[in-house]
Amino acid sequence: MNKLELIESLRIKANIAKNEAAAVVNLYFDKIADALAGGDRVEIRGLCSFFVKDYPGYTGRNPKTGEKVQIAPKKLPFFKVGKELKDRVDG
Q1: HSE (CB half, 13 Å, CA atoms) of 61?
Q2: Where residue 18 falls among pLDDT bands split at 50, 70, 90?
Q3: Domains of the chain, each with CATH number or no CATH
């Protein structure tokens, strides 16, 4: 399922206009992204949690030239599946 399919499913289930469903879905994703950008953890009970991991910088190597390159520290978002979803998918 992609974002457009999710919007269409919400539109049908909630019996609302497509633009209203799109606004709800966009708001939902925007709020998750804002929370993660602010360093917060997002938990949706029974489904999943989102959090940000910090990675320190390190010295890498350019595969083409073999030259050493300094890789800057970074933060990456992570998704962790909830127990109920894991059980549902596993069958």
Answers
A1: 4
A2: very high
A3: 3-83 (4.10.520.10)
Contacts with 82 (C-beta within 8 Å, 6 or more apart), sequence order: 44, 45, 46, 47, 48, 49
Which H or E element spans position 52?
strand 48-55
pTM of full prediction above 0.85: no
The answer to whether 6 and 25 are in contact (CB under 8 A) is: yes
Per-residue tokens: 56: 């320190």
Give the pairing of strands 48-55 and 58-61.
unpaired
How far CA 55 is from CA of 80, 86, 87, in Å, comes to 18, 27, 31
